[in-house]
């Protein structure tokens, strides 16, 4: 075996290995500790797990490409809420009154366009002012949240459309609608990042921005496109989720950015850019959701979930660094 | 493109833009509502900014040393819940030092991870945000915490009393700000903080123990958070588990507004205090002219971006970014 292969393998496969360990642990521990007599790896339970992972998961896929590019987006939670409001509110506009269920695609399109525009605004500011994405999106996290409140005050926005609810609750080939969205998004973004010029340039920019500029890559447009993609995905996540629930509070989606970043980092994407994989992020999302469900299954307090996830995040960071150090030492010899 | 003139009006605006903006806001709000500059209104604003302000002072140290602290919000919740719980169990005189000790332990843990193990501070404190939130919920069992005898305790003095006509929270804020301001500007340690944040490698080569400086910065941040928790607990004498949730980003906004660079090496305590006051006065001014509280979010957004943009533009000498 070549030197470094083992550590590369460990790093790539770590998140899936972690998922297997989680499954085994919760299955075995569940036998003794669980109050329910259903097995943890029950098929329905696992299908539900995928469905519940979807809202955070869809955004996390977008966050991966932002972080690969060397940026970060803290405004996704607010974008999520604003798109949800546009989705639910636009269905009640008098303009569309005569359309019946024909209003659904229009409302979806309006919500998705909202997300793309908010993302584009972030991207444009990062591109043109040269201010760090962390600060730009920290600001717009507040700003977009303000827009959410301005739209409807502190009141929740509600509208139930039963056709839409049926669609969101449907199961196709055993998987829920939300799961399909998560899988399709993962596949499409995987394709974009691995098989297109844009994806390759995004990795190059994140890895070494100066080198990318010298190689003639236009950094700005690529960053802006990525911000538009994450805006689109944040609103897609809202569209999928609120089609079913039908009611949005003005502070929905708060702290989503932190959960999303946790999932992405757990999947092994570097904050410094240039490295990361969409599939590993999917693994990170599933691992967190498994942990939540599993701890609930063995009767642990829901409070401990936060504690465990936080400590695991730090442990992963530590292990990752140790593995990287090993690789570097081997190189030196 | 025309070069950005650092000596002209534009340069002055870029360098002192935050003070100019502050002055313009105060003039504007005073014209809109004459009560804005009334002493009791000013006192009220500073008083309600004190909690955010004290936290921002500690985070300033962390940011100047080139790191981030996203855990201050959950740590403040933890401090509040712990001191309220211990107040009824062992009395206020013992509860306060115990709470400080526990929060300082958390700060030391973060400082150890970031300083000595050299882990990325954003992810460590993100993890600690979640972990400390879990710790708080486990500690309180998910319930709200209340002091049994709210009338008969002297504990309320930190948040509710006045001394010499000035509310105690303001005095605490001023005290912590002056002490930390002197530490940062006038002591060898303060200079080391700037050195570590400005160029960590150079600092190491000049014999500064980088890890120890970073560790101490997180300890100071934890101390400030504990003080903020004390004021919060004493003001309300009861609290939810999520009292500090989301404050970490507001604190960071205030520090950035004060002109500290996230790359480290720049920023001062005085400017952070200005940043905190700007946030407080904008919020208050918008309310006084009859706008809803959430308008301040949008205004804050615009101000943060403009402030940092001008700062960056002044440093590179060009208004627009050179990114192709």
From TrEMBL, chain A:
<feature type="transmembrane region" description="Helical">
    <location>
        <begin position="106"/>
        <end position="127"/>
    </location>
</feature>
<dbReference type="Pfam" id="PF02653">
    <property type="entry name" value="BPD_transp_2"/>
</dbReference>
<comment type="subunit">
    <text>The complex is composed of two ATP-binding proteins (LsrA), two transmembrane proteins (LsrC and LsrD) and a solute-binding protein (LsrB).</text>
</comment>
<feature type="transmembrane region" description="Helical">
    <location>
        <begin position="15"/>
        <end position="35"/>
    </location>
</feature>
<dbReference type="InterPro" id="IPR001851">
    <property type="entry name" value="ABC_transp_permease"/>
</dbReference>
<keyword id="KW-0813">Transport</keyword>
<comment type="function">
    <text>Part of the ABC transporter complex LsrABCD involved in autoinducer 2 (AI-2) import. Probably responsible for the translocation of the substrate across the membrane.</text>
</comment>
<feature type="transmembrane region" description="Helical">
    <location>
        <begin position="172"/>
        <end position="193"/>
    </location>
</feature>
<feature type="transmembrane region" description="Helical">
    <location>
        <begin position="134"/>
        <end position="152"/>
    </location>
</feature>
<keyword id="KW-0812">Transmembrane</keyword>
<protein>
    <recommendedName>
        <fullName>Autoinducer 2 import system permease protein LsrD</fullName>
    </recommendedName>
</protein>
<feature type="transmembrane region" description="Helical">
    <location>
        <begin position="223"/>
        <end position="243"/>
    </location>
</feature>
<keyword id="KW-0472">Membrane</keyword>
<feature type="transmembrane region" description="Helical">
    <location>
        <begin position="303"/>
        <end position="319"/>
    </location>
</feature>
<keyword id="KW-1133">Transmembrane helix</keyword>
<keyword id="KW-1003">Cell membrane</keyword>
<dbReference type="GO" id="GO:0022857">
    <property type="term" value="F:transmembrane transporter activity"/>
</dbReference>
<feature type="transmembrane region" description="Helical">
    <location>
        <begin position="56"/>
        <end position="86"/>
    </location>
</feature>
<dbReference type="GO" id="GO:0005886">
    <property type="term" value="C:plasma membrane"/>
</dbReference>
<keyword id="KW-0997">Cell inner membrane</keyword>
Automatic annotation (TrEMBL), chain B:
<dbReference type="Pfam" id="PF02653">
    <property type="entry name" value="BPD_transp_2"/>
</dbReference>
<feature type="transmembrane region" description="Helical">
    <location>
        <begin position="123"/>
        <end position="142"/>
    </location>
</feature>
<feature type="transmembrane region" description="Helical">
    <location>
        <begin position="12"/>
        <end position="32"/>
    </location>
</feature>
<feature type="transmembrane region" description="Helical">
    <location>
        <begin position="294"/>
        <end position="314"/>
    </location>
</feature>
<feature type="transmembrane region" description="Helical">
    <location>
        <begin position="213"/>
        <end position="231"/>
    </location>
</feature>
<dbReference type="GO" id="GO:0022857">
    <property type="term" value="F:transmembrane transporter activity"/>
</dbReference>
<keyword id="KW-0997">Cell inner membrane</keyword>
<dbReference type="GO" id="GO:0005886">
    <property type="term" value="C:plasma membrane"/>
</dbReference>
<keyword id="KW-0813">Transport</keyword>
<feature type="transmembrane region" description="Helical">
    <location>
        <begin position="99"/>
        <end position="117"/>
    </location>
</feature>
<keyword id="KW-0472">Membrane</keyword>
<protein>
    <submittedName>
        <fullName>Ribose transport system permease protein RbsC</fullName>
    </submittedName>
</protein>
<keyword id="KW-0812">Transmembrane</keyword>
<dbReference type="InterPro" id="IPR001851">
    <property type="entry name" value="ABC_transp_permease"/>
</dbReference>
<keyword id="KW-1133">Transmembrane helix</keyword>
<feature type="transmembrane region" description="Helical">
    <location>
        <begin position="163"/>
        <end position="185"/>
    </location>
</feature>
<feature type="transmembrane region" description="Helical">
    <location>
        <begin position="44"/>
        <end position="64"/>
    </location>
</feature>
<keyword id="KW-1003">Cell membrane</keyword>
<feature type="transmembrane region" description="Helical">
    <location>
        <begin position="251"/>
        <end position="282"/>
    </location>
</feature>
